[in-house]
Amino acid sequence: MSLHRYNLGLLLIILNIYSLGLIDALNATASDSAANPLQAPSDHSHGSSAVVSSPVYKPAVDSSYWINLLSSFPDDLEFSEYCTELLRLFGQRYVAFVNCLVPAARPVRVCQNCSPGYSSLSEVFLNISSDKLGPANESCRDSILRSDRLMLVFLLYGSLDTIWKKSNCKQCVTTDLTGPNNDTLYYLTLLNQTITCFEKYKEGNHTELCKNCKNAYKGLNDLYSGMEKNSTLCIDLEDSMNMTRKLWSKNFACSLPREETIPVIAVSSFMLFLPIIFYLSSFLHSEQKKRKLIHPKRAKSHTSLMNIQDKQS
Ligand SMILES: *[C@@H]1O[C@H](CO)[C@@H](O)[C@H](O)[C@H]1NC(C)=O
Ligand SMILES: *[C@@H]1O[C@H](CO)[C@@H](O)[C@H](O)[C@H]1NC(C)=O
Ligand SMILES: *[C@@H]1O[C@H](CO)[C@@H](O)[C@H](O)[C@H]1NC(C)=O
Ligand SMILES: *[C@@H]1O[C@H](CO)[C@@H](O)[C@H](O)[C@H]1NC(C)=O
Ligand SMILES: *[C@@H]1O[C@H](CO)[C@@H](O)[C@H](O)[C@H]1NC(C)=O
Ligand SMILES: *[C@@H]1O[C@H](CO)[C@@H](O)[C@H](O)[C@H]1NC(C)=O
Ligand SMILES: *[C@@H]1O[C@H](CO)[C@@H](O)[C@H](O)[C@H]1NC(C)=O
Ligand SMILES: *[C@@H]1O[C@H](CO)[C@@H](O)[C@H](O)[C@H]1NC(C)=O
């Protein structure tokens, strides 16, 4: 029972600080401050007005007093059975969702595996946070979500909701969140073909692999690029493509002549030659002028340049 003694000591220290530090805390009763030992001093006035059940703090209490304090609130005061049930359900589904998420972290299967879990969790959270009234005309929103400074349920749900939003899973699953949508299924089929091909040829010399899996890989890559443009990607697909690309170019050291590099090279080399073209043309231009001044009739091969000059002058 050393734990209880420790708790009691802590309680005494807190009470001392509490009554020494705050003159206006005289009205705060023992039960009040004991039930909220970690409450910030700035919040105490709110807490002290809520419940004043036991009269004064008695120093010589036995350890069970601590436990009694925790259950001394009449629980029908503000927290109904309906809300308790909602809270229990929330906890159950929260645990289920987290249990799904953690194994789905690597390789990422968050959207494929855990969308139904998110769906049921958000359903119960919606019931908690909505203004809808329960059987006894009570709303659980205020009592569960914002009765205290910590707002635990709100924080817990917020962190999982952030994960869900960051994963972009909405893009990959059906609207009722039951499973992958058709675009995703098609992508997964191509992915399966590519990986199956890799598996088949991965032994030994990789030249064969590069040759035989090129079409499958290219098809997958093109589909992915298209989906990227359409913004229909989610973390599962991004991660799988990331890994496939890494396998292809790093592990197997294959290369793919990428079409988009050809225009890039063309444009860059054109840019490189632009200064040369500029100086050349200005040189020709001045040369032209000289010739025109001296022998205007002989400059037939440069008619186009002359035309321009004519228009300018
Ligand atoms: C204590 O509470 C009573 C009634 O609730 C009030 O009249 C009194 O001013 C309070 N005392 C302090 C120090 O806040
Ligand atoms: C949430 O509310 C809807 C509509 O009232 C209801 O059908 C559903 O059963 C509720 N879900 C939970 C988990 O209470
Ligand atoms: C709930 O409220 C409605 C209308 O406000 C009322 O008709 C009904 O009797 C109330 N039910 C309970 C259980 O208080
Ligand atoms: C997805 O595919 C299924 C079966 O091929 C089809 O019945 C369904 O209509 C498709 N859904 C969409 C949105 O295209
Ligand atoms: C590809 O799909 C087949 C049949 O659905 C399955 O047996 C196989 O394990 C899959 N391969 C990979 C690499 O997922
Ligand atoms: C792989 O095999 C090809 C012929 O099948 C050969 O030309 C090449 O040198 C081999 N490469 C390596 C790294 O063994
Ligand atoms: C992108 O969207 C267009 C038009 O909505 C569609 O025709 C095309 O198939 C989509 N591409 C992919 C890769 O989903
Ligand atoms: C792809 O992999 C790299 C390194 O492994 C990582 O930094 C990057 O965030 C990944 N990209 C995506 C979209 O997951």
Please, what is the average pLDDT? 75
Class of secondary structure makeup = mainly alpha
Number of helices: 14
SSE topology string = HHHHHHHHHHHHHH
How would you describe this protein?
It is elongated and about 105 Å long. The chain folds into 4 domains: 69 residues, no CATH class; 91 residues; 69 residues, no CATH class; 52 residues, no CATH class. It is built from 14 helices and no strands. About 15% of the residues have low confidence. The longest helix has 34 residues. With 313 residues, the protein is mainly α. Bound molecules: 2-acetamido-2-deoxy-beta-D-glucopyranose (NAG) (8 copies). One 2-acetamido-2-deoxy-beta-D-glucopyranose binds next to helix 11. One 2-acetamido-2-deoxy-beta-D-glucopyranose binds next to loops.
Topology of helices and strands:
Blueprint lengths: L1 H20 L8 H6 L8 H7 L13 H7 L10 H21 L8 H20 L10 H6 L6 H16 L14 H20 L4 H7 L1 H17 L4 H17 L9 H34 L8 H10 L1
Helix pairs in contact: 5-6, 6-8, 9-10, 9-11, 9-12, 11-12
The chain binds 2-acetamido-2-deoxy-beta-D-glucopyranose (NAG) (8 copies).
Question: What descriptors fit this protein?
Answer:
313 residues; mainly alpha; binds 2-acetamido-2-deoxy-beta-D-glucopyranose
Quick summary:
Helix content is 66%, strand content 0%. The chain is mainly alpha-helical and 313 residues long.
